[in-house]
Structures
1.
Amino acid sequence: MAMRFMFVLFWLWLLFFSVSAELQRLEQSIKADGSLSFLVVGDWGRRGAYNQTEVAHQMGRIGDKLNIDFIVSTGDNFYEDGLRSVNDHAFDNSFTRVYTAKSLQKQWYSVLGNHDYRGNVKAQLSPTLGKLDSRWLCQRSFVLNTEIAEFFFVDTTPFVDKYFVGPKHHHYDWRGVLPRNEYLSNLLKDLDLGLRNSAANWKIVIGHHTIRSVGHHGDTKELVKQLLPVLEANNVDLYINGHDHCLEHISSTTSPIQFLTSGGGSKAWKGDFDSLEQGLKFYYDGQGFMSVQLTRTNANIAFFDIFGTILYNLDLSKGLHSAM
């Protein structure tokens, strides 16, 4: 009897205290005509400064024109050091009071960036923020399911070695991540399983850090080694990220993956170009955002600057998934 009691306690301990990266599934409806449209913005939370307000204004205009269904944030949602608590005024000043356009009053799906990890991560993940502004939804990793596409949001910051071994003067909130190896192993297994089981015609993965980039940060070697093989093995169509404060498209030379960077939500650096990379199709070292329009077989991707001018268009098409 005592042994059985100890066994039950052991599994309760595992349930409540062990590290898990299990991917919660969320649902998003599509339009009556079977299409889906959304905007992508990253690296934005600066209380309206560094042209954040101007980018937000154009997002509202384009969002109205495209009748968007939701917005994706690729992380670094609150500079410089995330949120201090659920009562931090940065949430209101950098989010609610900036993205005021009617078309942007849709669900926001967000991941954490490295700057978010410098604050109180649990505050940014808290459902309390959703009560303050119903648009807000941020989780470490999750799956967003639609009839025509599945979106896999991935927590990329814990992959990067330097945040652990050389954080300099920064403090990172690793609650819920340690032990790190177990967390990453679970996340990669769950992602691989989710992608393999997906019957969606479009598989889209979203993270904060770059996999391929010619910008300031360049390729993230840990993601190239650990995450990219999972994406390639499961025929992912798009990897969308922020981190580099630019707009960018690199086409993989070894798989169908298109690498898309939308990290121009506020501060950017002119001339911030590292080195030419094979497969580079478009690079803009300024502020802006991205739109995506999807049907079952076609995708249109556009990059916009702070004046709402289209800088670059990408059209993709594919046959129906065999399971459809």
2.
Amino acid sequence: MANLVYKRVSTDKQSTDRQNLVLAEAGIEDPVVFEEDAGTSSRLHPLQRPKFAELLTYARPGDTVHISEMFRLVRGTGHVLDVLDVLHRDQVALRIHDGAFSAMDLTARHPRTGELLSTVKFMVQTLAAAGELQRDLQRELTYDGLRAAEAKGNKGGRRPAVPVDKTDDVRTAYLEGRSIAALARDHGVSRGAIRTTVADLLPEYTAAAPGAPAPELPVVLDMPGKVADFLRAAELEPAERAALDQGVTVRRGQGYTLRITAVPAVHSQLLSHCQPLGATTAVPAQRKARREYANRVNAFIQ
């Protein structure tokens, strides 16, 4: 009975370090590894991916497929059930070693008919509908990424700023023509840390006038989806439209919020545009959405 290991990353900027760590901890004996080319899209159906198709051709009844987390193989309910149907047809087991579904027996079959148990289908559909796969993806990418980095001797968190005793050296080197990228490499810090150290020497630097108020700093606020949908059809100023267009969609069950980064003044202007949602003629869900956004905006303006 062979142990077949499947690995995949979504972009060529990622590595399999995290998957390797999870699978190594599982203690799989004599693994036969099938690894997709870097950048194989998760949007491609698992049964159409070259290495997974090769794995299925290689597999024999009684073999077990091992993956670190379910999202390495599938991303949606349809994909899960399609893969399970094929594995059950070929009498191949599936073992997920971490994250969503890792505690479930996805290979359970009806003792008389041999069909995939309806309870397995129900659990898969319920967890997927609840967004468990997406939450697991976000959590595991962060947590296990840190574990993999620590295993290699790297520490997480921000890179350090330029030490005080090196500030003069950095500024002198910059004035002598050393690039920001080169200085960042020399001192083992980020480019942002170098830019902060030489900020007043940069061509775009403009000294603030004496007594001038400090510029507003951008803040990140979550805008309910119903507010965002309303504002997309409204007449907005360029800065307001840009903030809305650059917002990051965050799924919330059946709805979503739009995570917007903008200065408080822009948030305030966006709030003023959605006044009609607070009217008695608006549906209750719209009034609630506007009220939630107003509370978040007002917390920064007051």
